[in-house]
Amino acid sequence: DPEYSLLKLAASKAGLMPLLSNPSATLTLLAPNNTGFSYAGINEAVINALPAEQLGSILSYHIIAQKLPLASIPTTFPNTEMPTLLQLPGAPAIVKMNIFLQRGTPTFANNIPFNDVPEVVAVNGVVHQMLTIVMPPSQVMLQAVASDTTLSYLVAAITRADLGLPEGSKFSQLLANPVTNFTLFAPVNDAFRAIFPLLGLPSTDISMIQYIPVNSLIGILAYHLHVLDALPPANITFSRAFSDNLPRTPTPINTFLKLVNYPNPTPPLVIDGSRGVKGYVNPTYTHILKADFNTVNGVYHKIDGILLPFMP
């Protein structure tokens, strides 16, 4: 199909054509056409210039080793994770990087929509046409958050909260672990500045974080990490929810707070994709300012307020 000539060129250079040509394979290919490549700024010259290994990594993230017709992709919350052929960085070769699917109008892979065209059923699988390339993440969440200057107060809060957590369970370690899978609602710096006067702090400078009790920070930060479920002492059912998958009516969701020794039952967050996220004692919803920062071990959404499970 000439519409996929750039995909064929890239797959040929990456050494993936024998796999895609194997009639005994069982695959799902998320396939950007030539227009989809152009949306990502990739043309024939770029493909010829890119190393084969880099092309292989990008395209392997578009291949799932099972047949997934559109009707079999779940509509449930949170996004359904499927292992791709791309190896998870820092993990054994058998551990693959997941891509996250959500069937709807349109259907999404991560936060990239499928084009509204019929799927192509082949002898060895199924092809879904994508709007553009689904780039695999390259950083763990801690790296991404630490390099974002609008989240420097959050990073300082993580550093202080870690003082009260045992080795192996610190927030920085969880957010740096490539095999975890969180959804983080990340308050921007102004969200922290707005709450400092309520805590009786004399200024809104980042140094004020050192005066917030460590246990309070642990509880507040844990409340910003969405997990599908968390059972003491350490059992977590992970989840990653992109904005396309967020419920559009007020829906309670679990948080990591259930594992940091706060009273049971732990108050849930309430999420409404059209309004934002609301903590148990917050009078109004915090707004999602910018969504879908995808990382190796989770996704984070920037929010304009602090989510409170209790009065600080």
Summarize the structure.
With 312 residues, the chain is α+β, with helices and mostly antiparallel strands. Helices cover 23% and strands 24% of the residues.
Protein described:
23% of the residues lie in helices and 24% in strands. 39% of the residues are buried. It has 312 residues and is of the alpha+beta class. The termini are far apart. It is elongated and about 65 Å long. Strands 2-1-8-7 form a four-stranded mixed β-sheet. The model has no long low-confidence stretch (mean pLDDT 94). Helix 7 crosses helix 10 (214-222). It has helices spanning 5-14, 17-20, 34-39, 44-49, 52-60, 141-146, 152-161, 171-176, 189-195, 214-222, and strands at residues 27-32, 63-64, 80-87, 96-102, 108-109, 112-113, 120-122, 125-130, 182-187, 225-226, 229-231, 235-237, 251-253, 269-272, 276-278, 288-295, 298-303.
Strand order, largest beta sheet:
2-1-8-7
Distance between the termini: 60 Å
Low-confidence stretches: none
| Mean pLDDT over the full residue set | 94
**Order of helix and strand elements from N to C terminus:** HHEHHHEEEEEEEHHHEHHEEEEEEEE
Let me know the largest β-sheet: 4 strands, mixed
Helices and strands, with pairings:
Elements: H1 5-14, H2 17-20, E1 27-32, H3 34-39, H4 44-49, H5 52-60, E2 63-64, E3 80-87, E4 96-102, E5 108-109, E6 112-113, E7 120-122, E8 125-130, H6 141-146, H7 152-161, H8 171-176, E9 182-187, H9 189-195, H10 214-222, E10 225-226, E11 229-231, E12 235-237, E13 251-253, E14 269-272, E15 276-278, E16 288-295, E17 298-303
Helix pairs in contact: 1-5, 7-10
